Amino acid sequence: MHLNHLDLCVPDVRETSEFFERFFGFRCQREKGRDALAILQDEAGFTLVISRLRAGDPTSYPAQFHVGFLLESEAAVQEAHERMREGIAEISPVREVRGGPAFYTRAPGGVLVEISHRR
């Protein structure tokens, strides 16, 4: 068994999709409706679905909910931090987390994102 996809619900599908395309190499495979849904895929074939929040849905994720990206090296984490720091207002410093360098940021829509490397 393997994880097939992840669906994140956000207020602005386009803005959140562009974030994951710009910083994590996802490519939009298909869009549905008017800013209702975007289906993204990464180089490994993982599917990330970005859906618009519906009326009555909670407007934020629980504080510790997050999406984690594991990079191939410490240098890759530092490079990602530098690249993202230029385009994102809210980004943590790189620090040691569970045996390797990591940092956190928030994607549009409030999704917490961890970027790390494990030694």
Care to give the gist of this entry?
The chain has 119 residues and is an alpha/beta fold. Helix content is 20%, strand content 34%.
Word description of this protein:
The chain is α/β, with parallel strands linked by helices and 119 residues long. The chain contains two helices and eight strands. It has a four-stranded mixed β-sheet with strand order 1-4-3-2, covered by helices on one side. Strands 5-8-7-6 form a four-stranded mixed β-sheet, with helices on one face. The radius of gyration is 15 Å and the shape is globular.
Per DSSP E runs of 2 or more residues, the count of β-strands stands at 8
Helicity range? 10-25%
The helix/strand series, from N terminus to C terminus, equals EHEEEEHEEE
Q: Could you give the distance between the termini?
A: 26 Å
What is the alpha-carbon Rg in Å? Answer: 15 Å
Assembly state (oligomeric)? single chain
Mean pLDDT: 93
The tally of helices reads 2
| Shape summary | globular
Structure class: alpha/beta
- Report strand %: 25-35%
Unreliable stretches (pLDDT < 50, length at least 5) are none
Biggest sheet overview: 4 strands, mixed
Cross-sheet strand order for the largest sheet: 1-4-3-2
Which tags fit this structure?
single chain; 119 residues; alpha/beta; 4-stranded mixed sheet; 2 helices; 8 strands; 20% helix
Layout of strands and helices, then pairs:
Blueprint: E1 5-10, H1 13-24, E2 27-32, E3 37-41, E4 47-52, E5 66-70, H2 74-85, E6 95-96, E7 101-106, E8 112-116
Parallel strand pairs: 1-4, 5-8
Antiparallel strand pairs: 2-3, 3-4, 6-7, 7-8
